[in-house]
Specification:
- Helix content is 2%, strand content 53%.
- The strands form three sheets. A six-stranded antiparallel β-sheet has the order 1-6-2-3-4-5, with no helix packed on it.
- Strand 13 and strand 14 form a beta hairpin.
Length: 188
Amino acid sequence: MIGVTELRPGVAYEEDGQLFKVLSYEHIKLGRGSASIKVKVKNLRTGSVVEKSFINGARVQEASLTKKKYQYLYKDEENAIFMDEATYEQIQIPLSILGTDVTYLKEGQPISVLAVEEEPLAVELPPKMEFSISDTGPNVKGNSASNLYKDAILENGLKVRVPLFSKVGDRVVIDTRTGEYSERAKNN
């Protein structure tokens, strides 16, 4: 059992026979009452996202997930296909379960797959990944003290807001937890 204050993003737990992975965590303290914990979680079997609230001090059952390295091969209409690099065995994870995580996968990329009793349920993405810009507006200079952004489409089809100086072909780092621009790639 783990305390609900330990439910940080990426932690998996079990409740009522269902497996959940925490997407966001918020600690709320109002006045003199006890604190409450609000988490946004993803059901690992159905892919649905819900918000749950717990009182401070509550405990949940920690999920026993196994993590194994695979190589991402490709996706079809219904599944993402991964290969075990040691045995060349292929596994499939339904796109409905992966949700938006599939947009960050690149062919040939090594990735950790989370499983329960040999049933693959999710992928563990690196917190930040590099992508190149495939389409954006014209390259302009801003005359503002604050950061100004414009829309861009990345090589994976993801739409993000990037700084005004960004142009097609530039490599940028995206935070996979939020889907937002983080910084320019170091080796541009």
